[in-house]
Amino acid sequence: MRGLLSTEVETVGGRTMFFDKNITFFGLNASDRTDALRQMALSLKEANLVTSSFEKGVLEREECFPTGLAVGTFGLAIPHTDSDKVIAPQIAFASLKNPVKFRLMGNGEEEVDVSLIFMLALKKSEDQITMLQRLMEIFQNQELLKEFAECKSLEDFDQLLKQVELE
Amino acid sequence: MKKLLIMCGTGIATSTIVTGKVKEWLEENGLQNKVKLYQSKISEELSRIDEYDIIVSTTLVPDNIQDKVINGVPLLTGFGKEEMFEQIKTQILA
Fold first, then answer.
1. What is the number of other CB atoms lying within 10 angstroms of the CB of residue A163?
2. Is there a domain that residue A7 lies in?
3. What are A53-66's pLDDT values in tens digits?
């Protein structure tokens, strides 16, 4: 199998373009998934990375096509919506103070307690396949997910991105 | 040659990952000449879903087509991946 750590990732000024705007929340306080999604989408909107319809798009899509993933005992979610609501590609990150429930992707009934959210604001697929594959490689590693969940600051986060070669 | 559709809700994020993994797996197993891959979003495919021989979806599908759709989420989480590939293989060779 092709190793992801040997592949190239697009960088801007030495930093992966998908995390360069620091849309990050450490220990985000959210009452439920809608609240968490709203706060993250708002932050992307305020940075002019997405259009004003992005939030609505993400919320609606999450109801029709849920994005919760259960990786062993770990729950994470990768909310996203159509690319026409994205101005510039970016990934917003949040670790949650208390987990919130998401429905499982590809499964209408089961729910998972999510403590990490990667909100994907993406454009065309060809540009981001390497990054997405690397991200998924990380999602399959429970130890790394725990490290992401334990990030307390932007410094911790930056260091971890560098370690997993997402920076 | 069989037509294999990989779809998700938007056609840009998870279907991209799954397509990449399926492509790698086809090559590793010498099956790449037996299937043609299509990547799309569910809303564009429901009306012509019968044109495909094999369908992998990372997202929820309507009840009436559930039986013919393989759940692609194992390729995102790594759990249940082998069983999923077996299902695809069975359908390719059927």
1. 11
2. no
3. 999 999 999 998 99
